[in-house]
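task queued by scheduler; priority normal; single chain, no ligands, no partner chains; default sampling; output format set to structure tokens
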Amino acid sequence: MTIRKKMKNTLLILGLFCTIMLCLTSCKNELNVLAPSGEESVSVYGILNPNDSVQTIRINKVYLPSGDALVAAQDANQINYDSSEIRVSLERYLTGNSTPQLTTIGNSNKQEILLTAKQINTPSGVFNQSQMIWQTTDKLYSNGNYKLIIKIKKTGREITAITNMIDSVKSNSKPFIYHPTYYPSHGNYITTGSNPTPQNAYIDYSTLTATQKIKFNSIANAKLYNVVLRFHYIDSLLTGTTNTGYVDYQFSELKSTTLLGGEALEVSFLANDFYSNLGNEMAKKITSNINNRRSHYLEYIIKAGAESLNTFLLVNQPSNTIAQDKPNYTNINGGIGIFSSSSRSMITHDMWNDFIDKIACHPSTNPFGFCNSAGKKTNICK
């Protein structure tokens, strides 16, 4: 029996659940779970992040069509709502208070955020590439609870969901890095008592066998943590211009044992693994028209996700057994999907000269034209 025959008269969620790495990043054209026969429902995917300038929520129609599911999936009108059909808004509440609070930082009167519809194009796939998302540029608070309200205009029916907002990991309570004594932002020293010397103000991963750590404290109401070490570089082109680029060193996700906050968490790595990762990722870059490359600075990024997001990811992760039936998780009242929150924290640090020199001559990174601290290419390590 062909896939088309199996799917005839049955439509799995005509929605677009986005790839989740603690924030709304990219979308896929894929199938999901069933709606009740003959009844239209709503599929919701929204992860609020107070660090983002734009908040995005995905809302789709969910139902069983009378015809061929694959044909229905290519009909934009059967999978999308528009602004004439639904009203999408956010309200904010503080714990124990039933009165709506201010929703938007910088607006002393606003107690409701009305989201606007926007059409986007997704990669080709089972579903029509024309999709509708709902957005706002209002600056959100990092505390309190935000309530999503989707009102079906024709019937007056409301679909709702609530999420706790989570703050960002703070760098002033425990530094993101392990060995330096002082922790300046990129391009600026932060002094404590007296001026730091360059040796203990910059990052140095030049000792290849040394174990390095990225340490931080958990934050209240967050469960899931993703740590990224981002290396920034500058390309000098043969045309006389420059381009900037970066390479990420991704670490395995961490989970706090409680939601109270203040729990010590860390990832560790051998310094040599930094060079291996950098070399592997640089091999994927286009190297034509490059005169040389300069190491620029390091950026430490920690993304945190609320408990509901962690649960959603856990339930929906691929099965590694022959048993494929899994429970469905949703926190949408009157619909299906996920409405949750995440946060992001970043600090940047300059690199010590010995570290820059090692990148220039290390076997994993030397082939990619990195200059040493004197601005020259080299094949010789001290």
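post-processing summary
- The mean pLDDT is 80.
- The first helix runs from residue 3 to 7.
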